TrEMBL record:
Superkingdom as given in the UniProt entry: Bacteria
Positions of the Coenzyme Q-binding protein COQ10 START domain: 10-128
Xref: InterPro entries: COQ10_START (IPR005031), START-like_dom_sf (IPR023393)
Pfam families hit by this protein: Polyketide_cyc
SUPFAM superfamilies tied to this protein: Bet v1-like (SSF55961)
Protein name: SRPBCC family protein
Length: 153
């Protein structure tokens, strides 16, 4: 079961980073490369504990649907979303926001299990873990750009 962790320093407050990361509309903007769009549950605005969203996107050339639910939330420091239906066997994605003197360290901790037993583990090794790492890094950098370039001066 792969665990991916990515840290991104952002010159913005934890509150700004937290709200950007849980905003459905922002998620759609930061994942445009996969044509991701909300098609069920909360399809716009800020997610709260207990909310869920169904995403439709194209990953690895295949249109897919995935439903995730916000299971835990401690504003503005952490929230956890869990896949309740989708292509993975399971996943837990913890988003953590640690204030620093100059901004915030945003940490993505993504723990997933692929379906299909040993075939899924082979896919992890061959390409899926790298694909998911790149996806998370690209989204984190897009959030960083939004947070740093939309500050009130």
């Amino acid at each position: 079961m792969p665990i991916i962790e990515h840290r991104e320093f952002i010159k913005a407050s934890a509150e700004v980073c937290f709200d950007l990361a849980r905003n459905v509309d922002v998620h759609t903007l930061t994942t445009a490369h996969t044509k991701e769009r909300a098609v069920g549950g909360n399809t716009s605005g800020l997610m709260e504990k207990g909310d869920y969203v169904t995403w439709e996107a194209v990953h690895l050339g295949v249109k897919q649907r995935l439903t995730a639910k916000i299971m835990e939330m401690e504003r503005p420091h952490m929230f956890i979303d869990v896949m309740v239906e989708g292509a993975f066997h399971s996943f837990i994605h913890t988003h953590t926001f640690k204030p620093t003197d100059n901004g915030t360290v945003m940490i993505d901790h993504f723990h997933y299990k692929s379906p299909f037993g040993w075939v899924g583990r082979l896919a992890d090794w061959l390409f899926l873990e790298k694909y998911m790492t790149n996806f998370l890094v690209q989204r984190a950098r897009a959030l960083k750009d939004m947070a740093e370039n939309n500050q009130d001066s």
